[in-house]
Amino acid sequence: MKYVIKGYQNVKINGTISNSGTDYDGNYSNSDLYLTPKFLLFEHTDGLNYFNVELRRHHQLFQKNNLSIHVSEGASGGIIVPRTNTTLLGNPRYDQFHLAGYGLAAIAAINLTYKRFFLQTEIKGGFIDLPSIRTTMFTEDKAQQNFWFFQSNIVLGALIGPFKCAKTN
Predict the structure, then answer these.
(1) How far apart, in whole angstroms, are the C-alpha atoms of residue 120 and residue 155?
(2) What is the end-to-end Cα distance of the chain in Å, rounded?
(3) For the chain, what is the radius of gyration of the CA atoms?
(4) Confidence class of residue 69 from pLDDT cuts 50, 70 and 90?
(5) For residues 39 and 13, is the Cβ–Cβ distance under 8 A?
(6) What span, in angstroms and rounded, lies between the C-alpha atoms of 126 and 56?
(7) What are the residues facing 33 on neighbouring strands?
(8) pLDDT digits (tens, 9 = 90+) for 18-50
(9) Cα 99 to the chain's mean position, in Å?
(10) Three-state SS across 59-121?
(11) Where are the domains of the chain?
(12) Partners of 40 in the β-ladder
């Protein structure tokens, strides 16, 4: 996943900025701020890395000769280790990997298999919570963020090796 904050827009800000040597020092409580590169550049484009474990349950809907149709559903959870690229309040660019939070998701899929080849479509949606995003080289400088996500996948593949499709009577 990738995430980019669009500049030159009005945003809400909460928290405290102190000792930055800029006009932005102060306390903020749901305050409006016009976001410019002078204040912040922020993106998870080098990877919003979601390391997760996923459990799925599979059901066969149809089987005839070499053709089968399956559906599956599941859930996943894991940690987020982004390489967040930030420039904040004139500090040098910071982009080190950091354990920033966690994610949870649900998934549903349908699979059409013919002999050893398959086509699978999936939808996945979930929630990402990042309470500890590093924004500068100083450990006390951090941000937090959470959001919902949705993705869809189309997978074309082949079953290889000794595995065979199970046949039911």
Answers:
(1) 5
(2) 42
(3) 22
(4) very high
(5) no
(6) 15
(7) 11
(8) 888 888 899 999 999 999 988 888 888 777 888
(9) 13
(10) EEEEEECCEEEEEEEEEEEEEEEEECEEEECCCCCECCECCCEEEEEEEEEEEEEECCEEEEE
(11) 49-158
(12) 88
